[in-house]
Hints:
single chain; flat
Amino acid sequence: xxRQGGARSSPMRQGILQDPLFIECYANDNWRGKKLDVGKxxxxxxxLQLHGWTIAIQALPETEVRGTVKTASDFLKQMFR
Length: 81
């Protein structure tokens, strides 16, 4: 499946991204037996919380990232995930 724009950046510890269990779960993320599209912030946030990591957020005007809304049909599909 080809991914469309909207990519964001976030710094993370190397040890998290190289953890074999993280990699396995990230590559095979599923819900009710249905494989999910990996790469979503929700998986990473959920993983970090479940494994005791602290999540920090920079909420300053100079760190703001803006994006565009997808076409109407893509936006509706995203809302039903």
